[in-house]
From TrEMBL:
Major enzyme class: hydrolase
Alphabetized GO MF terms: hydrolase activity
EC code: 3.1.3.-
Organism encoding this protein: Nocardioides yefusunii
Lineage: Bacteria, Bacillati, Actinomycetota, Actinomycetes, Propionibacteriales
SUPFAM superfamilies linked to this entry: Phosphoglycerate mutase-like
Protein name: Histidine phosphatase family protein
């Protein structure tokens, strides 16, 4: 039986990690705004990630420059003795609704008629960064992480919509989707498995799911703003 060593093909894993819960009591769609940090629960989630995968063969970490992503990477980086690389390509997506409170969920948009004109094309989406551009930048960053960790494992810390868009692209699925059905909970891992440069599998795990309040699990429009990807 041939092995990766005998064929010259290296197995590399890139774990794309969503950040932990954010302190956001007003339920603001904060997007790329600065000064949104992990909550106390979010810190526990980040520590859980360090406990869950800190013994793996991880040799490279890169993260979105936003505070919540860097704070999520910190416990794992400390455990592994690695310095995360800041990569703007894995930042949150742009959104014309940034700054609006979504405490009442998607119904909020009905109270803001000035936003309605941005809802005409869910395929793009017309209210924010095009999915194709998001997939391209995320794919490029993940491939660079793969190259930096050849034969080992890497972690990329990002945000829900960019991660989900990356997964749809990797699995060759349509970008059009219901945000409430994204499989990308807080501090979840979407793992891309490579043989050499070839992507052979995408897997998913939720090391911190038991820490997520029941009301917030799989709820893209949950109250309290724990999900930074609240979208129409």
């Amino acid at each position: 039986m041939s092995t990766p060593e005998s064929t010259g093909t290296e197995t590399t894993l890139v774990h794309v990690l969503r950040h932990g819960e954010v302190n956001n009591p007003e339920g603001i769609l904060y997007g790329r705004r600065p000064n949104f940090h992990l909550s106390a629960l979010g810190v526990k989630m980040a520590e859980r990630i360090a406990e869950s995968i800190g013994d793996r063969d991880i040799v490279h970490i890169r993260t979105s420059p936003l505070e919540r992503a860097q704070e999520t990477a910190a416990p794992l980086a400390a455990r592994l003795g690695l310095t995360p690389e800041l990569d703007p390509r894995v930042i949150e997506s742009t959104n014309r609704f940034e700054g609006i409170s979504f405490r009442d969920g998607a119904k909020t948009l009905l109270r803001h008629p000035e936003t309605w004109r941005y809802l005409y094309n869910p395929f793009k989406p017309s209210w924010g960064e095009p999915y194709t551009e998001m997939a391209a930048r995320m794919s490029a960053a993940v491939e660079d992480a793969r190259d930096a960790a050849r034969g080992h494992e890497a972690v990329v810390v990002s945000h829900q919509l960019p991660i989900w868009t990356l997964r749809l692209h990797a699995e060759k699925k349509s970008y059009l989707h219901d945000p409430r059905k994204r499989e990308c909970t807080l501090c979840s891992l979407t793992t891309l498995h490579y043989e050499g440069d070839r992507l052979v599998k995408v897997s998913y795990s939720e090391p911190a799911v038991d820490l997520i309040p029941a009301k917030d699990r799989n709820a893209a429009f949950s109250a309290g703003g724990t999900d930074d990807e609240k979208r129409p």
